[in-house]
Amino acid sequence: MNVLFVVAEMAPYATSGGLGDAIAGVAHALARLDVQVTVIMPRYQTLTELGEPGPGEGPARSLYEHRDNGMRVLLVDDPESFDRPGIYGPEPGSAYEDEWRRWGRFCQVAAALSGQFDVVHLHDAQTAATALLSSAPTVLTLHNAAYPVMAPPDEAAELFGDESVDLLEWYGEANYLKAGILAADQVTTVSPGYARQIAEDPEVSSGLNDHLGNLLHPLIGIMNGIELRRFDPRTDEAIPAQYGPDDLTPRGESRDKLLAHTGLDGSGVIFGMVGRMTGQKGLELLDPVIERLIEAGLRLVAVGNGDDDERVDAWVARFPEAVWHAPYTQDLARLVWAGGDSFLMPSKFEPGGLGNLYAMQYGAPPVVRFTGGLADTVIDADTEPEIANGFGFDDYSSDALAASVERAMALYRDQPERWAGLQKVGMTTDWGWDPAAARYQWVYRRVLERNK
C-alpha cells in the first residue's frame, strides 16, 4: 500500500510540539507494517539544506526529496508561501494573516501528486482542503479541531474551484476544516474520548460537531502513541543520566539539573507543563489557587508559548522561586519529563494528550483533568490503586484542580513506595505507536474497499 501523508510539520525537521511528534511516530510505525509512506510538507526557511531538488507540481517551484530511514520526505519549495520565519506564524502561537493562501497553495501541490498514491492521509485544518481536489481516496485526521483555517470565500473558490463553494461555506467565510471533513472518505481523530467529545460539543469542535456527529462513515477515534525508540529514559542521551523502571535513582540527576537550570526552590514538588500556553490547557484554573498551592509546595516549570503567556509570566513575576517559564525546545522538554516529580495537564479539552504519555514514560506521574485522550490514558491513584499511573479530576474548576494537586504532593512526600508504584506502572505500559498504526492500516483498507 502506497500512502501520502500531507502535513504541516513532522519531527525532527519542523515541529511546534506534539503534532510533529505524532506525525513522525505514526509514519514510522506504518513503515514497519510495510506501508510505503511518503510525507509531503513545506520547505521552511530552516529546511533549505535538506533534500535534493526535483520538478515542481502546482504552485511549487520544485520538490526537494529527502530519505528518512527508507521513508520519502518531499519538501514543497514555494517561497511565496513558506520563505518566512516559523511554521504557522513568525512567533510561537501566532498565525500569518494569509494562512489561507499559504495552505491553499500547499493543498494544491499535494492534490497534484495524489494520483500517484493509493490513499492520501491529511492531518489537521492546514491540509484538510486537499480532499476537495485529490484524485485518490482521502483520510483526514483531526489532531485538534479547535484551529480551523478560514479564508475569503471568493479567493477560496479560485483555489479549489466553484464546485467546492458549498463544502467550504461557513457563515460567509470559507472553512478548510469543514470542507475536509465533508469531502474526506473517512475522518479520524486521536483518541476515542475526543471522538465522542467533538461529535457533541460545539466549543471543542469549533462548531463542527453536527457535521462530525452525522458523517456517512462515523468518526473513528484512534489513540495516539509516542515514538519509543526516540523517547526512552534508558537510552536518552539528552538527559544527564539514563534510568529505567527498576532503578529510578539516576533520575535524581535530571531533577538536580532542572533545578539548576531554572533556579527554582527544590524543597517543593516540581510539576512540569510542556505545550502551548493557551486557554485550552486550563491555565485559568490555576489563577485562583496558585498562591495556596505554592505555599503547600508546588513548583512549576512551564515550557512553551501561546496566547496565555501573559498569565504564566505574571506568576513568574509574583513567585520567581516557584514558577519558571521558557519557550519550547526538545531538550528542555525531555529534561522536564525526566527531572520533574509530576506533570500537570488541567486541560479544558485535550484531543490525544502526548505530554502525559511522555511524562509517564519518563517516570513523572501526571495530574490531569479527565477529558479527551487524558481520560483514556490516566488512571487515578485513589480510584484504582492497583493499576494507577497518576491523578485526575472531572470538574473544570479550580477547587477540583487544587484537590488533585494536593493529593499528588501528599502521596509524593508521605508514601514514596506508592509513588514509585505509580512511576513503574507508567513506565512499563506500552505507549508505542504500533497499535495505532495497525488501526490506520485497517482504515486505509476500508476506504479502498469502499472506492472499488
Structural description of this entry:
The protein is of the alpha/beta class and 452 residues long. It has two domains: 243 residues, Glycogen Phosphorylase B (Rossmann fold); 178 residues, Rossmann fold (3-Layer(aba) Sandwich), CATH 3.40.50.2000. 37% of the residues lie in helices and 18% in strands. The protein is built from 18 helices and 18 strands. Helix 3 packs parallel to helix 5. It starts with a strand and ends with a helix. The mean pLDDT is 96.
Could you give the count of β-strands? 18
Strand order of the largest sheet: 3-4-5-2-1-6-7-11-12
Shape: globular
In total, the number of domains comes to: 2
Q: What do we call the CATH homologous superfamily of the largest domain?
A: Glycogen Phosphorylase B
Oligomer: single chain
Summary tags:
six-stranded parallel β-sheet; Rossmann fold; single chain; alpha/beta; 18% strand; globular
